[in-house]
Amino acid sequence: MQEMTEDDRLVDALGETAFRTMGPLTGLAADAGLSLTQLRVLAILRDRRLRIGDLAQYLGLEKSTMTGLVARAEKKGLLARVPNEQDARAVDVVVTDAGREVAASLESAMRAALLPLTDRLAASDRRRLRELLEQMLR
Amino acid sequence: MQEMTEDDRLVDALGETAFRTMGPLTGLAADAGLSLTQLRVLAILRDRRLRIGDLAQYLGLEKSTMTGLVARAEKKGLLARVPNEQDARAVDVVVTDAGREVAASLESAMRAALLPLTDRLAASDRRRLRELLEQMLR
DNA sequence: TATTGTTATACTCTATAACTATA
DNA sequence: TATAGTTATAGAGTATAACAATA
Fold first, then answer.
1. pTM of the predicted structure, to 2 decimals
2. Which tens digit of pLDDT belongs to each residue from A55-79?
3. Interface test with chain A among B111, B134, B138, by most A beta carbons within 10 Å
């Protein structure tokens, strides 16, 4: 049996962390009648408006997939399509007031749901972990 | 605008880390013709055999969902169903040799795919991050 | 001609409800 | 009667390919 390297162990821990984080998030989104992807779209559009194609690229999805996601969120009243002023082919996607409310209430629920994950760490370790993750993501 | 607490920032960083980790993993699994869930099943069954219901519970899915997942993986030759010896109603799921090969090759590909995520950290910081994550997950 | 978004189609994932076989 | 798993059905997410409107 091959010994795992230090970096292998880090990568494994990142993977496990991702699964343990996604679980609660998926559940919470589902409770609100949303998929994780729709939740991400809501978060992304919180402070900007993007065209369908840009949104798709941002999420690594096909344009046609984005069309469907936006259509379903629009039917729920969370997003709206508005014509792009510069380019008549393009469509801007914006969050509605209702969408903003849902996003805000989910945001706090998610923080509450993820916090228990960090229970095993002392406050100083949580701070250090936060610093390291932020640096990694920068 | 409310100031974010230290813990809020940690939770946000965990969420972002999860998304940034899942992206590459999903892509790699897809390249191998697998969903992330099927990959997890392969990993879970690496060193044990579980019944359909136990697998479902482990993953937080319905039995009927598990039936489909196993059926598709079985059709690809990665998993096999074997009758449970104690209970004639039950079915054990096991990984085939082909499944083991796929899992092993994906494992190394995944490590390679996630490593760049940690580029911005010095070796000592990567080590510290690994320690903190392992402690958190313990 | 090239690009933006939509539509048509197909497959996977997921859940709920009804069912079969066994306990 | 209760449990294990399957089947039928339905909706969401995803991709590919073909298409219409605009650039």
1. 0.87
2. 999 999 999 999 999 999 999 999 9
3. B111
